[in-house]
Amino acid sequence: MRWGRQTLPLYAAALEKLDTLQPPSADAAAVQGWLAADRKVERAVRDLVAAAEKRDFPSVSEAASRAQLAGSRSRSEATSLGMAVCGTFGAPSGR
Q: Quick one: which of 15, 16, 49, 75 could link to 4 by a disulfide (CB 3.0–4.6 Å)?
């Protein structure tokens, strides 16, 4: 799962940088919820990659399900914070 090994370090680094930012106090709880969901995505994708490398297909399915659920939560939290691009699947129009 080359994509996972290449992408996960970038994703983890982005989360670390986001953790250092101080959101407005009114948004702090929502930001923490968003980042917590993204950390769950990261863990689930790491598990998915490990399971795929072992050809453990039941674990692949379970990890993929967790990643989808956490991703849905992350998009919901991002949208509630007004992040239109983070809350969508496609690139913004006009690009």
A: 49
